[in-house]
């Protein structure tokens, strides 16, 4: 595949194991903030309920219905309230702690470093992420991913989130890349794959969970290792 020169990677859930790192951070917070004695009896249930509210709020955030500041605290406020603990101050503290602790977690998906080592020899690598600016750079630094990437484009800096084609246009310009010589690699059928399609960029859909959906990517893989067969 000689035509590509630039690879744009998604970060969360494509390279950086978001769920595992979030779980590790939440466990640490549960212990340190003594949430058991605060009235939340079960750590696993705390994490499960948090995820439900977080997913719901992230959906609203993606659709620009709520702000990042609201999301940060509200996801913990609702979780605590679910257990009968109405404590806005504690929710605020948990919200801040989460954004401090979680990006220092380092778990990557299997073969992340290997595939980047392989790809960097042939292509220029970049990141396009919808995550918060202040945490994404910390994640890249702590997990050892930083050195692989030339440009890191965050939706916050651009003002548009994937799948909005304007974030892809911005990324192309920043990387000095053309559509034809670029390819997007990501796990999100909507944000990464449809987004890149709308922007006229080829895509590799990293479908770890073998999800069935209507998306028709240029390429599809079920592990990072398989990317070597394509690129
Ligand atoms: Mg992702």
Task: Give the helix/strand layout.
Blueprint: E1 6-9, H1 18-32, H2 43-62, H3 68-82, H4 88-101, H5 112-120, E2 124-129, H6 133-142, E3 151-154, H7 155-158, H8 165-175, E4 182-186, H9 189-198, E5 202-206, E6 219-221
Parallel strand pairs: 1-2, 1-4, 2-3, 4-5, 5-6
Helix pairs in contact: 1-2, 1-4, 2-3, 3-4
Bound molecules: magnesium ion.
Residues 10, 12-14, 186-188 line the site of magnesium ion (MG).
Short description:
By secondary structure, this protein is of the alpha/beta class.
What does this structure look like?
With 231 residues, this protein is an alpha/beta fold. It has 2 domains: 6-17 and 108-229, HAD superfamily/HAD-like (Rossmann fold), CATH 3.40.50.1000; 18-104, DNA polymerase, domain 1. It is built from 9 helices and 6 strands. The chain has helices at 18-32, 43-62, 68-82, 88-101, 112-120, 133-142, 155-158, 165-175, 189-198, and strands spanning 6-9, 124-129, 151-154, 182-186, 202-206, 219-221. Strands 3-2-1-4-5-6 form a 6-stranded parallel sheet, with helices on both faces. Helix 6 (133-142) links the parallel strand 2 and strand 3. Helix 1 packs across helix 2 (43-62), helix 1 (18-32) packs across helix 4 and helix 2 runs antiparallel to helix 3 (68-82). The longest helix has 20 residues, at 43-62. It starts with 5 loop residues before the first strand and ends in a 10-residue tail after the last strand. It binds magnesium ion. Magnesium ion is lined by residues 10, 12-14, 186-188.
